[in-house]
Amino acid sequence: MSNLPIAKLDNGTKNQLICSYAALLLHDASSDMTEEKLTSVINSSGCKVEPVFLRMFAKVLKGRDLSQYLSCGGGSSSQSNAKTTEVAAPKEEKKKEEPKPEEKEEEEDVDVG
Known about the structure:
Blueprint: H1 11-28, H2 35-45, H3 51-61, H4 66-71, H5 78-88
Helix pairs in contact: 1-2, 1-3
């Protein structure tokens, strides 16, 4: 998504991004996540968002510490990601190849002269 110009994003994605950025601003200001405050930040930026997104973000973030969401890296810990990866794709056992002894090439003395 970061490679796409904003103009090419659909309206739902734009609304989510705008609300996410507004929530991050409010978090940095140590402010409550309310619909009114999200609306104020978004209006101050000159953006417009469908009201359903404002209600949704305000409801989800109400009384929660946004830093918990930010620190978990996509909604799960790295430890649980490692377990999921192990279950999804078992480790393949690779046979160690023993180094082959190098054959010494005989250098011939050539008279160039």
